[in-house]
Amino acid sequence: MKKIINCLSILIIALFAFACNASTNEAQSSTENTESVGGQSAVQDDESQKDIVKVAASSKDHSTLVAAVKQAELVDVLSNAGPFTVFAPTNAAFEKLPKETLNALMKDDKKSELQDILQYHVSVGVFKPEMLQDGQVINQANSKNITISKKDGKLIVNGTATIIASIPASNGIIHVIDGVLQPQ
């Protein structure tokens, strides 16, 4: 009887060890697969409201902004939960800049300057149009401030860029602007 109990004990221990090892291998495999997939921007979801990056990427008027966000490696940041308010210059707004300036900013050695400019277009929090007031100062992601003004019923950022549309996103709001904001 003692031999049977010892054999059963050894068998139970062996089965337990095998089960634990299999769980560990599955967990490692799952972790390896998750790590190679990417950040928040890689999440596939065709049913929920689009985040800020996906809204901008689906706009033909924001291809320059999307290219700059990719070059600055800010896609995952702006795909996160937020909430964010993004002042999004149109392609026409970027065309107002000297071509050599934009081309220079898109080079790898200017990544930190590009990040600073793009972060100057992002606020943490949601600022809906009805919340924006004349003279309001808003701190941006790069720790510098923008100033909102109202003129003839239009909202203007830093006296140079007019908000021409506002688009809600799952992680905030996008204010489409007709100028590129320059950090001061």
Describe the 3D structure.
One of its GO terms (cellular component) is extracellular space. Pfam families: Fasciclin. Keywords: Signal. This is Fasciclin domain-containing protein. The longest helix is centred in the N-terminal third of the chain and has 36 residues, at about 1-35. The protein contains 7 helices and 7 strands; from the N terminus they run ααααβαααββββββ. It starts with a helix and ends in a 7-residue tail after the last strand. The protein has 2 domains: about 1-35; about 50-175, Roll (FAS1 domain). It has about 180 residues and is of the alpha+beta class. It has helices at about 1-35, 50-55, 65-70, 75-80, 90-95, 100-105, 110-120; strands at about 85-90, 120-125, 135-140, 145-150, 155, 160-170, 170-175. A hairpin with a 5-residue loop joins strand 3 (about 135-140) and strand 4 (about 145-150). It has a 7-stranded mixed β-sheet with strand order 2-1-7-6-5-4-3. Mean pLDDT is about 80; it is low at about 1-35. It is about 40% helix and about 20% strand. It is globular and about 40 Å long.
